[in-house]
## 1
Amino acid sequence: MSQRSGKPVTRQDTTSDSHMDETETNISKNILEKMDKQHSDFLRRLEEKFNTFSSQFTEQLLSVRTEVDTTKKQVSELEYKIDDLEQYTRRNNLRIFGVTEERNENKDVKLKQLFESKLGIKINTVDIDRSHRVGKNVGPRPRAIIVKFVSYRVRQQIFNNKKRLKGTEFTIKEDLTKNRSEVLAAASEKFGRQQVWSIDGRIMVSTGGKKFAFTRRSEIDK
């Protein structure tokens, strides 16, 4: 018979201690099981919330991307329409290269004399709405002149006879927008300069026995 605190330990005391140990073990086990269940429930709810958030975020992201793509297309179409309108406003214009540049010059008179002497076309100064030099004055090379004619008919008469200037220091080109100029440059690089020209702002290309018209850079890159 054992003793506890100086008192004899009976069988009943031993049984009581065993029951207490078992009870403590069961309580601890229950607590751990409850904590484990709560932890599992917490992780499950967290995962559900994450999946819901992820799904909503993915849907919103796809929606935003769709809206961005739509907006880009709308902006692109708007830019094209603006460029088309700007090119139309230049339909009476031509760019003349090679005309000597002087101070206090009368550009209208110079152009009138050029057209008559080199193209054999007589026009009046009243056929010219206005004319001015463009670009920076660098070196001895004269800057180009943009001339706007009063009528498209006179403009076309001059433009259709520009080949007569071949072999001279003069050149006549259409007055293209920045976008059309880039399309012309891209087409010339891809198909060759001799196969590319412009008509009324459209960039024309002759290749494979066929002729094509371009107004957008993306069309050239296809």
## 2
Amino acid sequence: MSSSEEGSGTPDRKYSGVRRRKWGKWVSEIRVPGTQERLWLGTYSTPEGAAVAHDIAHYCLRQPASLDKLNFPSLLPPGLRTDMSPESVQKAASDAGMAIDARLISERAAKEEGCVHSHSHQYDDSAGGGGGSSGLTISVEDYYYL
């Protein structure tokens, strides 16, 4: 699936495997290798949440030799299993995406309220998307369930 947006005429950041619904939510899905089946990864409030979900699923399903095509390769947890069923991959990817979504939403809300957060997970809103070169330093390892 390519990263495209539905409806909106404004340019948004592009992430692999992520698209924007016309009402503003971000969605992600991926094809299961060797089948015609699509694996729904979820609907997210942020494109980063959808992108992380896609990265986890892409890695688990396809075991790529290179991480160059992932959106946030540095967020893949060490020891991420690649021998899971599509349903387990779907849950792991969705959980990771939702965790990123929740973290970013709470950080943005706190930033808008003028609060200063003292935890180590930060998101740099000025960073560009794709290729893993972003200020997103949230680890999904804490949110990954086997």
## 3
Amino acid sequence: MDDFDGGRVPALDADEELRTGAERWALCVETAMAAFRVRAFHAVTLELVAAEAGLTLPEVTEQFATADDLVLAVVQVWNARRMEPILPVAHSRGAAAFLRAIVAVNVEDPALMRLLTALANVAATPGHPSAPLLQRQWVQFHALVQRALVHDVAVGREPDTMDPARGAEQLIAMYEGLQLQSMLRPHMDVLEAYDRAVTRLRDGWSKSYTPPVWEV
């Protein structure tokens, strides 16, 4: 090739080196994402990603020192890609419709939800280096749903008898619980189940809260 001088690869300038690093970073993330679609969480290793990306292991570890680092990058990229077209729904149609839109996307492509479910174990493991970041992401998601419910009450979409903080807990618990069930019961119609559960939940929101009295 004309770009070579005496068979030697010319030295890359700083911009080319940065671009190459960025491209390798993106290649590792996309390759891992594809691997998570067809493999269990624990089966996706740095060695596997290197082999499937056509890279050496040192080229991968130059970008991601540990498998945990790669997984966190995958989640951030994948979730941002999934959420970008859905986020406006929270403002335009409300929190319940927003979560339903996520469920619908997950029905079409369940791989990310499987990965996030696996990572719940990591987030809850005391002392795990990835736990604080994952927990922050869950807290931020709750805050997002809570803000949407505050707006819903302000515009009259939801009743003012509903406490948005508690409503977010309940709505997310229902959303995540039904998603988990649908992964373990493959023939379950999770959208229909979500619609029924939300209807019941919102009916309860329309009434003033009465503290329960449990018979022991």
